[in-house]
Amino acid sequence: MEFMDSNILILSAGMRSSIQDLGRKGKRCYGVPISGAMDKFSAILANNLLNNKEGLPVMEITLVGPKIYFEDYTLIAITGANMSPMLNGESIEMNFMYSVKSGDILSFGKLICGSRSYLGVKGGFQTERILNSFSQFEGITKHRLIKKGDRLRILNIDTELEVTSSKIKVKNTHFKNDKIEVTKGPEYNRLSKNQREYLFSEKFEIDALNNRMGYQLKSKRMPLKESEIITSAIIPGTVQLTPSGKLIIMMRDCPTTGGYPRILQLTDLAINQLAQKKTGDVFKFDLESSFKFLNRLIK
Amino acid sequence: MNQYKLIYKPLGSIAVLIEWPYEINSDILKNIHLFKSRIKTKLADFILDTVPAYNSLTIFFDTGKIKYSSIVKKIKEIYELKDQILKTNSILYKIPVCYDDVFGIDFNEMSGALRISKENIIKIHSSVIYDVFFIGFLPGFLYLGGLSEEIHYKRKSLPRLKIERGSIGIAGGQTGMYPRESPGGWNIIGNSPINIFDIKTDPPCFAKAGDKIQFVPIDLKTHQDLTKQIQLGTYLIENGVYG
């Protein structure tokens, strides 16, 4: 039998769509960000629904969905934000497995909840793998985003596949939770008593400056006396307070180091939940109980 | 090795942040790198990645295998070990830099403000052997220590939207090279044709924290020739074991 590549064709790219896995691990020492799916929970769920390994590359879709033409058989699952997915114009369910064949078209409609959807395919997307990861990132992969006309390789399957999994229910709190769980960051102690009170009583609004690198917040300016640190490591979820007193939450594509005080740190669950929020959404910081925190750190 | 009093803090639940006294100097750099290589050798099974910086070392550990409190205990024990101090090998890389006005777009301003001729700025910049403190900000962006105080110069108040790949800049007491085109606020004095970050190689960056860098002035013609050689893959960076 002749071996042929199987592909999907991007008819329209949607907004900031990219291929992501669970990140480019072990390259931070060269200044390479970890990257990976913004909402890891939903990316893993897409793979689980397809009986894929949990770290296989999926498509991350932000706010506006793409239009995709399938050239070959595969199975798909869509998780995360509900953007009213449709197969050949008919609504399909979130968090469920569908079988598709050559000629099928996947499209999206109105955004119902959340901010990022994940499209998984059987066997994962087989795009370029650089430094042990498929995650697209500027300067590492050839392109940082998926664009119209791209043909993305998928696993070659020569017959229609059976739908074997059942629908999974995802709790609404994953999208609607207005409490973002944090622990104290390395420079938390630089905050005054008033600043701490403000930080945990105020509701913060997400500024229009939000992307895979970080989310800036609208807040009262709260400058610190010692407003800089000697450049040191930062990780996704690190909340930095800039010298002008602005709060910025680092996300998956953040640099490996930064020079602003790290006052709070989001838990991984909180990063996933924040990844489902968008400009204008409001939330409160919720300091994880020290009991829970210690429990996580100590065996 | 245990010459400093270190502070250990969690960074999220995935890393241990180790802090040295709040200052930048090459003794601390040496201590960080010796400690880093010991940890990587002795705890190889648990360590996923390391991010050294000026006065800190962040250790990313495998949370599936070990808890924070246990890895901190093991790391602290390594710092207290009284075994013979092995010399860590650092490599000196000679990076060709063209300081021609075509590239050195901020010489005029710097020269005027510092009252040092362009020729002397080049001489001062290229005579020092710099320490690679760490890599951060962008993939392959080397943070170098050792810039002569005579040519310290404040970063631009308004960053440029586009700085060419390979640009050599000065910002305050730091000097460095842009591994790719990027916005930036550094004062640009030259350009190197070297690929400092190459995704086709693993590791993607030839230099590592703890190594040494020296800039070697080249003329415009040589810059063009080297650019061709680098494209063809026939150029090898001059390097050797240092110290």
Task: Give the arrangement of secondary structure elements.
The complex is a heterodimer of chains A (299) and B (243).
Chain A: E1 6-12, E2 18-20, H1 40-49, E3 58-62, E4 67-70, E5 74-82, E6 86-87, E7 90-91, E8 97-100, E9 105-107, E10 113-121, E11 151-154, H2 173-176, E12 179-184, H3 193-201, E13 204-210, E14 214-218, E15 232-233, E16 238-241, E17 247-250, E18 257-258, E19 262-266, H4 268-274, E20 282-287, H5 290-297
Parallel strand pairs in A: 12-20
Antiparallel strand pairs in A: 1-4, 1-11, 2-3, 3-10, 4-9, 5-8, 5-10, 6-7, 6-9, 12-19, 13-14, 13-20, 14-17, 15-18, 16-17, 16-19
Chain B: E1 7-11, E2 15-19, H1 26-42, E3 47-52, E4 56-61, H2 68-80, E5 90-98, H3 107-114, H4 118-127, E6 130-135, E7 142-145, E8 160-163, E9 167-171, E10 174-177, E11 182-184, E12 187-191, E13 212-218, H5 220-232, E14 238-242
Parallel strand pairs in B: 5-13
Antiparallel strand pairs in B: 1-2, 2-4, 3-4, 5-14, 6-7, 6-13, 8-11, 9-10, 9-12
Give structural notes.
The complex is a heterodimer of chains A (299) and B (243). Chain A is α+β, with helices and mostly antiparallel strands and 299 residues long. Chain A has helices at 40-49, 173-176, 193-201, 268-274, 290-297; strands at residues 6-12, 18-20, 58-62, 67-70, 74-82, 86-87, 90-91, 97-100, 105-107, 113-121, 151-154, 179-184, 204-210, 214-218, 232-233, 238-241, 247-250, 257-258, 262-266, 282-287. Chain A has two domains: 6-154, no CATH class; 177-297, Cyclophilin (Beta Barrel). In chain A, the strands form four sheets. Chain A has a seven-stranded mixed β-barrel. Helices cover 13% and strands 31% of the residues of chain A. Chain B has two domains: 7-80, Gyrase A, domain 2 (2-Layer Sandwich); 90-242, Cyclophilin-like (Cyclophilin), CATH 2.40.100.10. Chain B has five helices and 14 strands. In chain B, the strands form four sheets. A five-stranded mixed sheet of chain B has the order 7-6-13-5-14. Chains A and B meet through strand 15 and strand 19 of A and strand 1, strand 2, strand 3, strand 4 and helix 2 of B.
